Recover the amino acids of this structure.
C-alpha cells in the first residue's frame, strides 16, 4: 500500500546495503526541502542460508518496495574495501543488487559515502549515529527514532540524496548554509 | 545455440566477475574428469556508463548464457577486499550479480579462491596465469589458448568446481594425486 506522491516532490528510495539486514527507506522531498516518510523497513536474510539464496531474498525485498512505492531515484550507501573486511564483500554484493535493480527498472542511481550522508543530515561529516537518527526523526516528524539502525540509515541516505541533488529544485538553492560550506570545502579538497 | 549435455556429465557455468570484462565459461565434465567446452566468452560493460546500467548489462549477459546453455551449477571466483582496492568493489558487485542470478534460477552456486582454482587446474596453488590457460586449453582440447584472459579464467573456475566437487561422481575419487595432496594440505592448514 503506498501513498500518492505529493505534487512537485521527489520520491527517493534509500538503501543501507547489507546481507543480514538491508535497510530500506522511502521519502518524498519537496522543493522547500521538507520531507515526508513513505516507507521504512529492513529486508533480512538468514545468515545460515547459501549466499545465492540470501542475495535473491534481498533482491526480492527491494523489488517489492520499488513496485509498491515507485521511487524516482535510488540512493545507496557507498561501501569501502578498507572497512570491516569480514562483512564488506557481502555488503558490496548487496549494494550491487540494489544498483542492478535500479538499472533494470531504468531508475537513476547514486551512491553516497557515510560522511556525505552525515554531513547532509547534521551539517557535520563525523556526526555519530544517534545524531543522524535524531535529525532524521525530526525532519520526518516521527514520534520515535526509526528502528533498527539500518532502517534509520536508509532514510538518512534517501534524504541526503534529495538534498544534495537539490531534490526537485536546483541543488545550490536547496542547501543550508552548513551544507553549502561543506560542499565548497569538498570542492576545494578535490582541486 | 547450445549443444545437448552428454549423459551423466555435469554442466558448470564458471564466472570470473568483473565490471569492464566479466568472463563466462561453460563446460561439461564427465565422471572420468574429462571435459568439453560448451561456451566461452566475455560480457563487457562501458566504463563510462553509470554503475546501475553496467550491472544491468552484466546481469543480462549472464542470464542469456543461463537461458541458452542451462548449466546445473554456477561457480564464481571469490573476491578479496585486500586485492586492488580501486576495482574490488565493482568486482564484488559483479560477483553478487552472478550469485543472485544463480539464486533466482534455483541453481546451486559456489565460490572458489584464485589459489583453489590454480591448484585444481595445475596442481599448484601459485601457478601463473599462462600455466592455468595452457592446462585449460589442454583439458578442453582447444587449438589455442582461450582469449581474453578473463574468458580462460572463467573456464578454469568451472573446471575447478567440477573437479573439486567430484563432478558427477564422488569428490575424493575424482582427484588426481596432486590434488589429493593439496586437499590434505589445506585440511591440515585449517586445523
Amino acid at each position: 500500500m503506498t501513498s500518492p506522491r505529493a505534487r512537485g516532490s521527489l520520491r527517493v528510495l534509500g538503501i543501507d546495503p547489507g546481507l543480514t539486514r538491508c535497510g530500506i527507506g522511502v521519502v518524498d522531498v519537496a522543493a522547500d526541502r521538507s520531507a515526508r516518510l513513505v516507507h521504512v523497513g529492513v529486508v533480512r536474510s538468514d545468515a545460515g542460508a547459501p549466499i545465492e539464496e540470501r542475495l535473491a531474498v534481498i533482491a526480492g525485498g527491494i523489488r517489492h518496495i520499488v513496485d509498491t512505492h515507485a521511487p524516482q531515484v535510488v540512493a545507496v550507501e557507498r561501501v569501502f574495501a578498507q572497512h570491516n573486511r569480514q562483512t564488506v564483500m557481502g555488503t558490496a554484493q548487496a549494494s550491487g543488487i540494489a544498483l542492478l535493480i535500479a538499472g533494470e527498472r531504468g531508475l537513476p542511481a547514486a551512491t553516497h559515502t557515510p560522511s556525505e550522508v552525515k554531513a547532509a543530515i547534521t551539517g557535520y561529516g563525523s556526526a555519530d549515529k544517534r545524531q543522524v537518527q535524531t535529525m532524521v526523526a525530526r525532519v520526518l516528524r516521527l514520534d520515535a527514532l526509526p528502528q533498527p539502525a539500518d532502517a534509520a540509515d536508509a532514510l538518512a541516505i534517501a534524504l541526503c540524496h534529495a538534498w544534495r541533488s537539490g531534490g526537485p529544485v536546483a541543488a545550490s538553492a536547496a542547501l543550508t548554509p552548513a551544507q553549502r560550506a561543506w560542499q565548497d570545502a569538498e570542492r576545494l579538497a578535490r582541486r
